[in-house]
Design goal:
Elements: H1 12-16, H2 29-56, E1 66-70, E2 79-83, E3 90-95, E4 101-105, E5 116-118, E6 123-126, E7 131-134, E8 140-142, E9 151-157, E10 160-167
Antiparallel strand pairs: 1-10, 2-3, 3-4, 5-6, 6-7, 7-8, 9-10
Amino acid sequence: MSLLRRPSALPLWRDEITIDAADEGYVTRRQFTKFLVLTSFGMFVGQLWILARSLFARAGAPPAPIIVGRAGDLPIGAARVFHFPSPNDPCLLIRTGAESYVAYSQKCTHLSCAVYFDAAKTRIECPCHEGAFSAADGRVLQGPPPRPLPRIRLQRRGDDLVATGVEEGGSAEVSRAEAPACPRARA
């Protein structure tokens, strides 16, 4: 016999399972409180599990650099889609000047809708909730997005534009595709 159960002549299953249909529509305060306490405890344990996993998670390996295009193939003020760091992560490559390229994740930071580059307004727009981002640095210009677009780091290797990493939350600095410094030029 349980310590929390009142002594009764009826078996336990009779207390827990009502046979009378009229009694099934009613929930006692005790049953309701028990439900709330157990549900809250379950939510609390779930939050602790998420916290523990995030504290002990190992940082993944940096993504492998990939070629996203060739310099000069994209007209000034145009954009194209590529996938980085995985095939499930669409990104936008935008040519903002003669030798200036920027790249951002194509997922809006509000609800992950696909954003597109509006060349007439020179900004990146989200059609879902009328959000807008700066094409120069990815910052939020209007709408509900809570943070800037993640910026894709670019390098120029010869005529190739290479995506090398992702910077979360954007940056105030304009992302330009630049050639790596030549070791002989430092001397």
